[in-house]
Design goal:
five-stranded mixed sheet, four-stranded antiparallel sheet, about 10% helix, about 45% strand, globular
Length: about 140
């Protein structure tokens, strides 16, 4: 019975609605999570980091490197179908922001930073912000 209770609690967390944020507010998503931005009628999901060549924090590098972040955007609430829009942003190279339906989605940072001599730490966490198009950063 106790095992069943633990399973039901875990299943409840897995089925929760996405977290909520507002336009102009920074939010952080762990890989696989979604955020609902009701005042923009958008749901943004953090889907993938297909490449990460950022310079480790304890190394000397010729350039800063870059990580690629893949996001999915649903207009309206999330559902089972594929996202309406796939957005690819970068930590160092352009684009670091993308226009979406009168707003701009900005990638603020990607964590954790790599450390030389250690395996990649996961899960990734992307800090993002959705601002009105034309607003100052």
């Amino acid at each position: 019975m106790r095992l069943l209770s633990i399973f039901l609690v875990a299943a409840g967390f897995a089925c929760q609605d996405p977290m909520a944020a507002r336009v102009g507010q920074e939010f952080t998503l762990t890989l696989g999570e979604q955020v609902r931005i009701a005042d923009a009628n958008l749901t943004i999901g953090f889907h993938n980091v297909p490449s990460d060549s950022r310079c480790p924090i304890n190394a000397m590098c010729v350039w800063a490197g870059n990580a690629v972040v893949v996001l999915g955007v649903h207009q309206g609430p999330p559902d089972a179908r594929p996202p309406d829009l796939q957005v690819i942003l970068n930590t160092f190279l352009d684009p670091r922001a993308a226009p979406i339906d009168g707003y701009v989605l900005q990638l603020i940072k990607l964590a954790p930073d790599p450390v030389a001599g250690q395996p990649r730490q996961k899960p990734y966490r992307a800090t993002l912000r959705l601002v009105p198009d034309g607003a100052s950063p």
